[in-house]
Amino acid sequence: MELVALQLKTSKNFTKNLQKLVKHIKNQEENSFILAPELFLTGYSYDKLEEASKFSQKALKTLKFLSNEKTIALTLTVKENDNYLNMLHIFYKGKIIHTQAKHKLFTLNEEQKFFKKGDLKDIKPIKCDTLKVGSLICFELRFIELWERLKGCDIILVPAMWGKLRKSNYEALCQALAVANQCYVIASDSSNENMAKSSSIITPFGEVVKNDTKKAIKALFDPKEIKKMRRYLPVGIK
């Protein structure tokens, strides 16, 4: 299986963003696990959250269809009752197998004024076929206690819109997460002008595959690497 971290620019045109995402998903091999940057389809769009949520809802059908042969993960703007959430979706075999709203909202971006925080209990390993997968959405990466909740994962997803002023922080934390949890990390950050890029695939040993000039960062997933690290350096992860 190939792991893919997309590194794309989000424009103000929602339709063009979806078209771009569809193109890049189609370009990946069958059975790939693909992660897109945080809120890639609409950006934060605080001034038009209703439009963003309706567009995200319409995009679900397309993403479900594309996931018949690939696993796809990204966060979308979702409206529940009168609240908006920044919600991760994992698509697998034509279905949504997991949703998880962002729990730790980034106050410097005033997220708490526009989004409702998600439930802490949703930050957990979930089953994706034979794999255990977990997710931390952007700012959540900074909270080490959340890493503990994802112990035992084979893959941890980190979709982000992480600013370039804190680029080194994103890179260091993603690498440390992979080493601490002895698992693969797929980190997908926006490539907009003020963003860090730094999308990467990181192995359980901490080896980093990264290239800020590419739109898709790829690496093969090898479950033996996880078993080898956990046997060689046992830290209580099973």
Q: How does the SSE layout of this entry go?
A:
Elements: E1 2-6, H1 14-26, E2 33-35, H2 49-66, E3 71-80, E4 83-92, E5 95-101, H3 111-114, E6 126-128, E7 131-135, H4 144-148, E8 155-160, H5 167-181, E9 184-189, E10 200-202, E11 208-210, E12 216-220, H6 223-232
Helix pairs in contact: 1-2
Total count of domains: 1
Strand order of the largest sheet: 5-4-3-2-1-12
Secondary structure tally, helices: 6
Number of strands: 12
- Percent in strands: 25-35%
The description of the largest β-sheet is: 6 strands, mixed
Give the CATH superfamily.
Carbon-nitrogen hydrolase
CATH class: Alpha Beta
Task: List the helices and strands in order.
Answer: EHEHEEEHEEHEHEEEEH
Give the overall shape. Answer: globular
Q: Which percent bin holds the helix content?
A: 25-40%
- CATH fold label: Nitrilase/N-carbamoyl-D-aminoacid amidohydrolase
Structural class: alpha/beta
Weakly predicted, low-confidence segments: none
For the residues shown, what is the average pLDDT? 97
